[in-house]
Write a sequence for this structure.
């Protein structure tokens, strides 16, 4: 027993000094910016001791956020929630300009002044131009929410190749393109938050078209793998999987499907976009410092 104890005590220790050095570097950086008279740290955080901090304790004060698919549904609810919590908000949309204008009004009423970008998330030029414009306007990007998505209600036997490609392009490729562009400023900043909006339809809940389920499963794998890839830069990536909500998809399902879901749900009802937006807000806030690579499920207990 004595020999064992000696071996344990004398075993070489592996010391990882990076976190300590990171804290020192961050402190020096903040002190430098303070000495230069800047009120805002480049990461979007109000400097400690600033008398002009009138954010009222808002959860996302000063954070620079981009939400794809922010003109309607869950994307809009997330953009509004972010603005209400003090964030700078930009969003993309692809089709109905009236939806984008309604989203702009709602975000403005919540205290925001949104940047708006129209185009397909599956277009690499659009992704590059959008992120570039956000970074130019705000000096960086702290949060990306990949909320853009599409769905076709078709039996598998009727799904054509172009249908498969379209759903995969919007739901999976779009997230890849925007994430790739967003990571560049985030890596320079050595911090960031990315949320991929998934779905409950990976074989749970109610039947869903296979190409839609496949696209969301791909998005989940993407988020989980990416979290490990960029964690060293203090960038957290999570997959938020909401259950069936009272907006968007529920209104397009065949009659009785939404009611069937509610019957099998522990809470006996559909979720709301606002409930999921509140979860997304917490995930990207400074309150979340250790959750990454996670599948965060909010389905009411299916």
């Amino acid at each position: 027993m004595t020999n064992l104890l000696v071996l344990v005590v004398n075993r070489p220790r592996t010391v990882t000094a990076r976190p300590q050095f990171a804290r020192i570097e961050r402190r020096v950086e903040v002190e430098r910016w303070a000495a230069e008279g800047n009120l805002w740290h480049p990461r979007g955080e109000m400097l400690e001791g600033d008398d002009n901090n009138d954010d009222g304790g808002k959860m996302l004060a000063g954070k620079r956020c981009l939400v794809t698919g922010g003109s309607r549904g869950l994307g809009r609810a997330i953009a509004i929630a972010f603005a209400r919590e003090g964030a700078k908000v930009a969003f993309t949309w692809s089709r109905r300009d009236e939806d984008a204008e309604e989203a702009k009004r709602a975000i403005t009423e919540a205290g925001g002044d949104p940047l708006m970008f129209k185009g397909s998330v599956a277009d690499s030029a659009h992704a590059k131009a959008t992120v570039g414009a956000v970074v130019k306007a705000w000096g960086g990007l702290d949060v990306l929410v990949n909320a853009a998505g599409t769905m076709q209600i078709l039996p598998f036997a009727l799904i054509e190749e172009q249908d498969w490609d379209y759903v995969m392009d919007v739901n999976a490729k779009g997230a890849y393109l925007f994430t790739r562009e967003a990571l560049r400023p985030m890596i320079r900043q050595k911090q960031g938050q990315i949320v991929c909006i998934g779905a409950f339809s990976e074989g749970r809940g109610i039947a869903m078209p296979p190409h839609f389920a496949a696209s969301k499963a791909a998005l989940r794998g993407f988020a989980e793998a990416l979290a490990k890839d960029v964690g060293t830069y203090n960038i957290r990536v999570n997959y938020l999987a909401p259950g069936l909500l009272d907006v968007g998809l529920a209104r397009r399902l065949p009659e009785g499907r939404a009611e069937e879901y509610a019957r099998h749900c522990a809470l006996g009802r559909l979720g709301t976009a606002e409930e999921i937006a509140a979860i997304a807000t917490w995930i990207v806030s400074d309150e979340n410092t250790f959750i990454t690579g996670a599948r965060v499920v909010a389905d009411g207990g299916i």
Observations:
- Residues 59-298 form a domain with the Rossmann fold fold (CATH 3.40.50.720).
- The chain has one domain: 59-298.
